[in-house]
Amino acid sequence: MLVLVSDRFFIGLPEHARIMQVQVPRAEDSADKYILDYVKKEDLVLTKDLSLIEKLLARNIAVINDLAEQYDKDSISARKRRAALNAELRTFSRTEQSASPGASASAKQKEEQKQFLRFVQYLNDWKQEEMRKRG
Prior knowledge:
The chain is about 50% helix and about 10% strand. It is mainly alpha-helical. It has a domain at about 1-95. It has a two-stranded parallel sheet with strand order 1-2. A two-stranded parallel sheet has the order 3-4. Helix 2 (about 50-60) links the parallel strand 3 (about 45) and strand 4 (about 60-65). Helix 2 (about 50-60) runs antiparallel to helix 3 (about 75-90). It is globular. The two termini are about 20 Å apart.
């Protein structure tokens, strides 16, 4: 089951028996609170919220980001250091765009497709591993 938790409704999301949307109130950390209240050990959470990731890892919950990179205690520490550095750099200058200005739309689309396929492959691998664990 795919559960999407947000303070907004996902427009255009296809109706499917294995997809559920949960719309939480627009309050600080309301989505995080919902996730922490309902997550189970066998779940996989996709987020980039460092605070939520730390709480989930403390409960031994598997966490990945939108690039299908799995977090662990070491990687979250590195991400926090990088986030702090980026915040400091932003005080001195504007952050650059992630893609070079001269890159063609086609090159950007190919990169996005590559990232999406990597994400899907990770999900498939993770699901297979979970099924093997359950026997």
